Amino acid sequence: MQFLYGAVQEEARHFAQVRLPALVDVVARGYPGAEVPGLRHPQVRGTAVQQSYDEVEAQLREAVSVVRGSIGRASRAGVRATAEDAQMYLARCQVSIFTAHDAPDSELRQWLMDFDHLVTRALHVQQRLRILAGSWPGVQRADCPVRMVIESAQGRIDGFQRVRYTYLPSTGEVFVEGRVAEALTVALAELLANSIAWSAEHIDVTVQEVQTGLRIVVEDYGIGLTAQQRVEAEQLLSQSTVIDTTNLTERLGFSVIGRLVHEYGFGVDVSAPSSGGGVRAAVMVPARMLRSAPAPPDPLPERRPLPGAAPREHADGPSGPVSAPMTTAQGLPKRRRQQPTSAPQAAPKPVTDALDAHAIVAGLQGLGHAIHTNFPADEGDSHER
């Protein structure tokens, strides 16, 4: 009896220290070649002890299977929702193409602008997906002024007409490092889209010069965040790892921003409410990400008249050395403005080719067919029983 008691104790230690970790390696981690060892003492085989351990092992396998299925469903739902958004915008592009077939030539320019906005929205949706999966935004930009970052973000959302950007040269013409320009644009677009979705009024965007850099503030006057929602948003904004797929269907915008904040080093804060009770989001751009305006390109060499040709008179452009870069009161770089040097203008050539609207429409028909071929209608989802 004493021997059996000792065997049961050793078997319990063997299960906790050897068999259970091996079971986790096999079932949860999926290590190739890993095996779960059997009982240590044959004396307990066929007893209630073995039966209890077998039940624990079965429950662990079932728990891993349930969690894996839940993660799979959440992942598919998140990817499906994102892909469906992209497909929706591309489908709207297709409808817009077919609608433009009979449009008068005077409406072609406006149609192209609307088409470009739809494509931009679709591309932004795809950007969100790759960022959530741990990739970079996929676009490398040159150094650009803050106003271009804001205007680009504004052009990536629906309802962009409701965004009011207060432009000031002292902040709007400060240049942002090209390495982070696209990441800032994506993050700002997410904040604008969130404000547009939860506010029926206009959205105010201002840029403030602070001691440590620039602060871009997005302020809406809609439904504010509750204390719990604010805590959840701050957790997502401070996310430092690839997003857990079980949370992929909730607050995608904050999840995207959190990934960008971790990868690029700027800051986003939503802890303070707006003056109207809505959400006040602040994007902090550190001074190390700000750049001086690029030097203007060298003027074109002066054209010499051909032998025997009469000299042509033209106004001389401003001369003198290029002024030194200017800075703001806080020491931030400002964009230099220069009058362009006048250059001789060639005589305008007579217009021989007119815009062929029929040729453009024919090309758009081919584009519409390509979209229809590569993005077929949804054939429905299969559901597990």
TrEMBL record:
GO-annotated cellular components: plasma membrane
Coiled coil location: none
Any one GO molecular function term: ATP binding
Record flagged with keyword Phosphoprotein: yes
Catalytic activity: ATP + protein L-histidine = ADP + protein N-phospho-L-histidine
Pfam family, one: HATPase_c
Keywords associated with the record: ATP-binding, Kinase, Nucleotide-binding, Phosphoprotein, Transferase
Stretches with biased composition (Basic and acidic residues): 300-316
InterPro entries assigned to the protein according to its UniProt record, in alphabetical order: HATPase_C_sf, HATPase_dom, TCS_sensor_his_kinase
Entry protein name: histidine kinase
Species in which this protein is naturally found: Streptomyces tardus
